[in-house]
Amino acid sequence: MLARRAAILAVGSELLTPTKVDTNSLAITEVLNALGIEVAAKAVVGDAPDELAAHIRMAVGRHAVVVITGGLGPTEDDLTRDVVATVMGRPLVEDPALVEQIRERFTARGLEMPESNRRQGQVPEGSRVIPNTRGSAPGLWLAHDGGVVILLPGPPSEMRPMLEGPVREWLIDHGAPAHLIRRVLRVAGRTESGVDAHVHPLYMPWAHESPSVATTILASAGVVELHLSAVTSDAEAGQALLHGKVRALQQLLGDDVVSVDGRSLSQVVGDLLRAQGATVTAAESCTGGLLTALLTDVPGSSDYVDRTAVVYSNEAKREWLGVSPALVDAHGAVSGPVARAMATGALAHSSATVAVAITGIAGPGGGTIAKPVGTVWFALAHRTASAVKAVCCRFAGDRAGVRRFAALTALDLLRRHLLGVPLTVDWRVPEAPDA
Description:
Blueprint: E1 5-11, H1 24-34, E2 38-45, H2 49-62, E3 65-69, H3 80-87, E4 92-94, H4 96-108, E5 122-124, E6 128-130, E7 139-144, E8 147-152, H5 156-173, E9 179-188, H6 192-203, E10 214-220, E11 223-232, H7 235-253, E12 257-259, H8 265-275, E13 280-284, H9 290-296, E14 305-310, H10 314-321, H11 325-331, H12 336-348, E15 354-360, E16 375-382, E17 389-394, H13 399-419
Parallel strand pairs: 1-2, 1-3, 3-8, 13-14, 13-15
Antiparallel strand pairs: 4-5, 6-7, 7-8, 9-11, 9-12, 10-11, 15-16, 16-17
């Protein structure tokens, strides 16, 4: 049975420019993972023989499955066939039947095959040809030391049918089928290190069980993801295994778990609003509409988003929301009293059930000792509650980072409010001024 680790090489100098992106590796990873083959490495390599040879040697020496895309065309800079043949010590030989197939493709279009296309009929000795029904560059399958090197053309329209057809079938024939099962938990309100410190004792032993469960923690502004994966011979048993691990993490992390079913924070909040028959309005200052964008990214969000306002200036806060200038003078625009007044005003000027307000200092200037850059106040007002909740947080990062973090935190605070749980987040300022 093939080892469960693979490497992917995308060949082409154009992929090293700002205008071209390697998308083939995503499709390849999807197919390999479905067969229980873990992609352990990916690389993009330019059209330089020495560089390509070095990457191929390393990939073949470390991984049982190596998939290479690109560089199979008819021109002089299409070097993949030549370099693979050299690295693997196999001479290039012309396949007459293959050359004839390429010639027939041109003839069917009323064209004469250029002599340069004859290069595409040259294959490393011992290769198995992967038919290309959409182009002239054939794919190649080379068995090597118990593993396999697979060469596929670069154009996705040609590569994908070969990948999802013959390549997938041949991998199954060579003993690849297993099941790579994945689950993702999304967590909000905690830092990446905070999540890891909390769950590390739980998940560490899983790597030594049989079957083992790998755990990876990924972080972005406002949301931390826990990725669990396991390779099993039985898909149902693998799903049951990871379901148990997910339940254990949920019990440990409690209300900080946003979802375990793939839903984003925006989708979870939208589902909560819809389930409660509630609608939301927002008054945004420093985030400039980012919270609104997150809410309305979800299809069908018109069911629960009532209206929102970007009130950047103090005048806008006064004219649109009725925030008293005296309140701003006494506490500053970035303060608990002003955030509460913004939420109350937004609720009064809408038909929404709940209002969220955000006011803060995104930087790079405008901070003080008492209120440094990154200070953001949030407030939530509910039509059936007399009290208006307010929370102050401090975020690190540049202007874009603070604004993004603030918008996602506001979304999570709204989630917690709808669930009726405490508005607790790791970056909360416990004794903020103007509370």
